[in-house]
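Per reviewer request, we include the raw input and output of the structure prediction for the construct analysed in the revised manuscript.
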Amino acid sequence: MSDETAERTEDRLVVDVWSDMMCPFCYLGDALFAQALEKFPHRAHVELRYHSFLLMPELTDEKPINLNETLAAKRGITVDQASAMNEQFAARGREVGLEYHFDRALTVDTRISHQLSHFAAAHGKQHEMIQRLFKAYFSEGLNIADRGTLGNLAAEVGLDRDAALAALASGEFADAVEADLKQARDFGINGVPFFVFAGKYAVSGAQSPEAFLQALEQSWNETVGVPAGAAR
């Protein structure tokens, strides 16, 4: 991994995450990582940075499509079969407190919601924004390509709605999204979620909290220099 991925200081461990708001494994991975972070003694010194990835780069901002219908067309199966597959995943999500309602989810181009993520990062609210977008997509069936909806979600996490809408209208963060996508290609990332710890260690997928905790401990010990179990 490139040093550009993480800015390390004596007291900080940076974890870079490539994800997409339409990715069910990303929502799950975020929750499982949070469980690991709760057990990490230096969690206050961990910085999460989210990077853009397009699960379906072929999509445009045209009319949203029901996710079960999209999956059925993509896999060559019936909508009922797609619904059954998604319900199995939803059951897994409920085990960690997540509500997936795939029957409500609308497949859309997520480029503009990734721009909102970068706007939120510039104002210190990226993680809150990412979590709100996941919930909006998977639990509430909101159109996360609709600017008015995105403005409302931004306001809900404490961001200025008008400023968020202005940033989306101007495309202020479009280049940042493209830079993330390029970096993902350069790293050979072809699936998400994809976690990079301290610019050195990669963990792919929605792993167990134990696996994430091990990655946190190893990267902390080797890059920050204070053993994860030691008192500060």
